[in-house]
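Data card: per-record layout.
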Amino acid sequence: MKSKRYSAVGVVVGRFQVSELHAGHRHLLNDVYGRHKKVIIAIGSRAGQPTKRDPLDYELRRTMLQKLYPRAIIRPIFDHTSNGAWCKRLDNLIEDTFPNQSAVLYGSRDSFVRAYVGKFPTKFVRSVSTVSGTSLRENIAKIPKGSKTFREGAIYVTARRHPVTYPTVDVAILRDDEVLLGGKMIDGGKLRFIGGFVDPADQSLEEAARREAGEEVKNAVIGNFLFMGSSRINDYRYRESGDGIMTSFFRAQFYDGNPKPGDDIDWLTWVKVSKIRNKLMPSHRPLGEILIREVRREKQKRDRLIKEAILAGCEDSTSSARKK
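The structure for this 324-residue chain is written out next.
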């Protein structure tokens, strides 16, 4: 005997960020599919680049679900910062798809239905699986598969994402008229400023600059980090890729210590700022120009202040002599 089919629309909302539906997904969808002639599967979607939590775009998940549930109407439901606005968005999606019809929203105990505050009734479906999408994704990421399909999937995801500009920081550590530069064996004897990629845990670019300076320069007291400017870095790793690096350039004051190289820096050396142009690797030469201009402006400012002080002293002396 066939189960009763309800006239109301059955609605399921899920992220479905898996390579194939697990038992919990299938149980929920099969339950709703068996109860309703009209079914909407709303796929939770977000703007932005693929992430570890959301590696699959909408179209990949739609084709997976449509193949298994061809009768279902599948639509994206995009995230919103407001839960109330998101629920209203879901209600509008249902009403636009099936105007003037009732609907029931289904989910497991840990699903969206606990937070739903829209106009339609909800129903819990008992979960039959303890497997999580997170653990499935983590297992897939551990060991690459050798199949053509696996490689095609990796190419698809990478090719469809937007170009990425990676944020980095670089630091000119100054001592009088010298700057501390680092060397790496791969750079063919050329030098570079201290720096590296901004870490997701960094709370600011200034913090990233301090962290990188501490990692790459050991046994040194460094402080007074000041932003000087920014520049695109022509990094060989991203040439002709569409991606690139944008660095924020800081200056910092060396106070004390005997600097030793750390992290991936092979050696450190002090170089006069006026002599750095031909010593820097090509990708760091734009930063060298920023530093040279900054040092020149500071010198001009000091010279101007000294001149003004001398003139002011002369005027005071002249005034005193007149009084006498």
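Known properties of this structure: The CA atoms of residues 39 and 51 lie 29 Å apart. The longest strand covers residues 244-261.

See the next section for split statistics.
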